[in-house]
Amino acid sequence: MLRLTHNKRSSCLDQPGDQSVHEVISYEPSRLPARHYDHDTTEPISCSLKSLDELLLWKRNEASPFNVATVPLASRYPTLAKSPKKTLVSHDMMGGYLEDRFIQGAEVEMPYAFYHWKYIDIFNYFSHQMVTIPPAVWTNAAHKHGVLSIGTFITEWTGGEKICEEFLANEEAYRRAADKLVQISHCYGFDGWLINIENVLSEIAVKNTGPFLRYLTDQMHERVPSSVVIWYDSVLKNGSLNWQNELNDNNRVFFDACDGIFTNYNWTEQSLEWMKSYPGAQGRLTDIYVGVDVFARGKVVGGKFETIKALEMIRNHGFSTAIFAPGWVYECHEKTDFRQNQDKFWGLLSDYLYIHRHSSSLPFISSFCQGFGKSLYWRGQVENERSWFNLNAQEIQPLYLSESVGEKGWLKTHGCSKDAWIGGSSLMVKGMIPSGLTDVCARIFSLHVPLAARTFVSFVYKPHVDVKVSLVLKTIDVPLCTFDGTDEIPSSSVLPEALAEDNQLVKQFIQNCGQWAVDGWSTPCFLLKMTGCSLQDVCIRVSRVEGEKDVPFSCRIGEIMLMDAESLQSPPESVQGVCINDVVWQTGALSGNGHTLKLLLNATLRWQYPTHLVRHFRIHWRRLRGPDPRIPAGPLTLIGRCYSNLYRVVEQEVPAAPGLIELVVEPVTREGFIVPEPHWGRRTISYSETSAREERE
Q1: Of 355, 389, 450, 346, whose CA–CA distance to 145 is shortest?
Q2: What's the rounded Cα separation, in Å, for the pair 56 and 179?
Q3: How far is CA 306 from CA 87, 112, 293, 439, in A?
Q4: CA 571 to CA 576: how far, in whole Å?
Q5: Domain Cytosolic endo-beta-N-acetylglucosaminidase C-terminal spans what residues (predicted)?
């Protein structure tokens, strides 16, 4: 593939808002840094740092702007500090940086994704590369659910010894390394580090390890207030490499210098009992993350689908846990059964995991998208019919449950990609209403969302012919919201009645949405009038229509949305300051006439818009003129979706030079409301071939 680039890398400051960008196509190689952009396509990618030199030479102005997490850490109850028994998940998936390295998403038939966020406190992206920086897609998904995202700093074996001898040689050296780790975490928007030193340390190096940890922890807390630094159980205070599988006098010095310890996996119940009474653990039992290897390698308790055996022991002794490599459900089973096996794995552990309450102001919205799917949907219709994977698209995840109801009844919820309202998946609620019961009720969200005086509610679902589906909201009085993190507060159930289609609020809502009603989907709207109340639970009630026999059912939930009714009148924001830079031209396969090569545009778009107001942006392009002036301007054509104020146009075919095209940024609000076209952002780009004279010069 032949690559052509413009003659310089421009800055947004070089582009006045009322002017077109002009490109003279030349034959220079791409100047984009190879570590941050795919060599063939220029797609932005996430990457690690593989050496100490790379770490020490790291500069913020050379960081990838695409890999900066854009979702702030959401609030939840209990907070990490008050969580009674914390759960860390260490992602160890086939070396890391697989399809998830493509920041704008990838076409994958059945990817690995995590969506049981309600159960965990910390997500660790793990690989065996020295400085493992979590891909932004993982940090964004974790933050959306109030979960910390931490990277990994690892040294191993003989090569690791040499690295440690250098960066732990003295105070200046370890502070320099720690400062870079802090800067990287702060720059990319993640929340700390797992420190994993799995090699022998010299007397000098081990003497400086504790101070290194303390300095790193203090600096992380100062720059990223919610951050944590966790030590992996490996090296001892005398410098030898000897996994202890517990906290004891041999490794306590490292535990005392940071926020916690992640123990190795070969512990026994006796070691848990001993550790619970160990003086060095007193007052910090929940800072001890007892390791569980889901692959069950070595002499371990539980593992695989029997991980519950380990977790039960850990919880009974009052410790937190670090679950290592839960991707076993993906790696060691049929990929087509991934959802079923992941739901089974976490369902088996659920009795020993604390359900966290998502806490936010209105609006509260979820279409249950898990960040991947067989097609991309918008309002019940296919927008792009191909498999895709992008964790940036993952929405607030519900509780996935499987439980018995009475003697014969049952209830189960799970994600499904066969049909969706928005994104790639919907929520299936299946079960059996047993004889003797009129209904069953599935709690799908556990929340703390203060309601407005008038809260507008939208509920989208596909009903089942033999049952009635209704939305049940459980609320509490705001004065009772004195959450210390663990208490369950009695709530009151509210069954809202649907508003008529000619209700003024409904008409305004539909006008804001544009296309709304779709065959097969029910889309009722409601109004809650409540003062001083907070939403605690969202439930789906499924009731029998008639008779008393067992009634099997299966219904699909597309979206639940609650918003302040006053926000229906809010004026739209406008996209500002669209600019184009880092342009790379390519030629592709022969065009339709069989004589000329396709001309492909690659470019970075940037703009300003309040990201907390948007669900995503749609990026469009259209031909304005050229090369034949007799051909009229073309229609807007969708290029893709993005989830921040930054997008890389990749391999977009455009008309042959000379030409003039327009790139357009359309915001889609969190509620899915249409933003009028005058509020979209746009920038034109003209381009021409290099003349023979210019090439000679």
Answers
A1: 355
A2: 9
A3: 17, 21, 11, 33
A4: 16
A5: 568-688
Paired tokens of 125: 């992206």
d(CA 187, CA 177): 15
Tell me the three state secondary structure of residue 175. Answer: helix
Q: In what order do the strands lie in the sheet with 576-590?
A: 3-5, 576-590, 597-608, 646-654
The tens digit of pLDDT for each residue in 537-585 reads 999 999 999 888 999 999 999 999 999 999 999 999 999 999 999 999 9
DSSP classification of residue 371? S
Lay out the sheet containing 376-378: strands in order across: 381-384, 376-378, 422-423
Q: How many CB atoms lie within 10 A of CB 635?
A: 7
Contact at 8 Å (CB) between 110 and 329?
Answer: no
Please name which of 104, 147, 98 lies closest in space to residue 127, comparing C-alpha atoms: 98
Give the chain's end-to-end CA distance (angstroms, integer): 25
Tokens of 239: 């410098």
- Evaluate whether 43 touches 323 at the Cβ level (below 8 Å): no
| Rounded (10°) CA dihedral 155, 159, 163, 164 | 60
3 state SS of 146:
coil
Tokens at 219, concatenated: 């600096």
What are the tens digits of pLDDT across the range 457-487?
999 999 888 899 999 999 998 655 444 444 5
How far, rounded to the nearest angstrom, does the alpha carbon of residue 377 sit from its chain's CA centroid? 19
Report whether 319 contacts 288 (CB < 8 A).
yes
- Cβ atoms of residues 325 and 90 within 8 Å: yes
List 366's β-bridge partners, or say none.
Answer: 560
Instruction: Please name the amino acid found at residue 619.
Output: I
pTM: 0.94
